[in-house]
Write a structure and sequence with these properties.
Helix content is 64%, strand content 2%. With 245 residues, it is mainly α. Strands 1-2 form a two-stranded antiparallel sheet. Helix 3 packs antiparallel against helix 4.
């Protein structure tokens, strides 16, 4: 009975009480303030995410192309922040709209359906970064499902489970480094600072063990000295014998 009472109370709650408590009397104000707060947090998060790889690539960027690289980095930061803030605001807007249309709150219409309807915001982001977003969301979803299964008692907590998760994440990053078409410049710039490029790694793998560890200096062969010219002494010709080397 207590569970049914809580469920009935949940379904009758207003969206200002359940979704945007900082602006309980205005859905539009709540959506705008939420999107703006996400925008500020996105700028703080994406700025080092794009600037640090640019610093790693400075040694490989010609001076003439440096202004273009800086401009592209700033545009990437703004574009990624706009995507995330637009998505967050669209989710809250859809949840409020469904609450007003249906008249009640439901679990699916408060989170799942609004998030799905807000997926159009993904078109704001660059296509090259979509695999990275999918990788990040997938790891977070697996982690949440794993923690929920542990809390419900379906599975037991594994020792060093965080280490296994980190190993799997690094494996995905290394795979992205090997296949540049599946990663963006940010991942490539970060990995290239610590790891060789795929071409260099392939060249190292094709050499033998002695070629990798031992370098034999080239031995220069001395050129033969020219034979001495014959000398004429009192009508006879003498040919000197060359000195032994």
């Amino acid at each position: 009975m207590a569970g049914q009472s809580k469920l009935a109370t949940y379904r009758e709650m207003a969206c200002g009480t359940l979704l945007h408590t900082w602006a309980p009397h205005s859905c539009s104000r709540g959506v705008f303030e939420f999107a703006f707060s996400v925008l500020r947090g996105s700028l703080k998060m994406y700025s080092p995410l794009f600037i640090i790889p640019l610093l790693f690539r400075l040694r490989k960027i010609p001076l003439s192309k440096l202004p273009a690289q800086v401009r592209n980095t700033i545009l990437s930061i703004l574009r990624a922040s706009l995507f995330l803030s637009t998505y967050a605001g669209a989710v809250l807007f859809n949840a409020c709209a469904l609450r007003k249309i249906l008249g009640k709150n439901y679990i699916l219409t408060n989170l799942v359906v609004p998030a799905f309807l807000a997926s159009w915001a993904l078109f704001i982001e660059r296509p090259s970064r979509r695999p990275e977003l999918g990788m990040y969301v997938t790891t977070q979803a697996v982690w949440c499902l794993w923690r929920k299964a542990i809390s419900l008692g379906y599975v037991r907590a594994l020792p060093l489970g965080d280490v296994l998760l980190a190993c799997g994440a690094f494996s995905i990053i290394l795979r992205s480094h090997i296949s540049p078409k599946h990663s963006s410049n940010a991942v490539q710039g970060f990995c290239s600072f610590f790891l060789p490029s795929p071409a260099d790694a392939a060249a190292i793998g094709t050499r033998g063990p002695l070629e990798e560890t031992v370098s034999v200096p080239a031995v220069s062969t001395p050129s033969p000295s020219p034979s001495p010219a014959p000398v004429r002494v009192y009508g006879s010709t003498l040919t000197p014998t060359p000195a032994p080397a």
